[in-house]
Design goal:
The chain has helices at 14-39, 41-70, 73-100, 103-118, 120-142. It is built from five helices and no strands.
Length: 143
């Protein structure tokens, strides 16, 4: 590394040299941080996965809104009724399951439910994508 003398031709003072060394250390630290970030494959993969997940959720939401907009009102009402019936049936099954299932099985079911709650966005995206797929297939068969 070369030291630039002052304009007046004198050699740098010890204080000026310390400032130059400190500046060089700071730049070196920033360079090391940038290289470490590039080398952190796991963090890059997580960031990319988050971007992809966001894009998929956006696309699924758009597709869901499009499907809802194009679905006739009677079909939406029928779907709402079916949803209510399914919810009631699921509640009844869950009640019976809790009454009759052994404790270890209940514990595993609870863990699975907690895991699903943690990934609710992904689950909703998957269900929305499946709904769009089914609607598109039905529409194509109708033609």
């Amino acid at each position: 590394m070369t030291v630039n003398p002052q304009d007046n031709g004198s050699t740098p003072t010890p204080e000026e040299l310390r400032e130059q060394v400190e500046g060089t250390r700071e730049k070196l630290g920033q360079t090391v941080e940038a290289l470490a970030a590039k080398a952190d494959v796991k963090a890059q993969a997580q960031e990319k996965a988050a971007q992809v997940r966001s894009q998929v959720q956006d696309k699924a939401a758009q597709a869901l809104h499009l499907a809802q907009d194009k679905t006739p009102e009677p079909v939406r009402e029928k779907a709402a009724q079916a949803k209510e019936q399914i919810a009631q049936a699921a509640a009844a099954v869950a009640d019976k399951f809790q009454e009759k299932a052994p404790d270890p099985v209940l514990e595993k079911a609870y863990q699975a439910a907690e895991s699903t709650r943690g990934n609710r966005g992904l689950l909703i995206t998957g269900v929305a994508a499946l709904a769009v797929f089914v609607l598109v297939r039905r529409r194509r068969r109708g033609r």
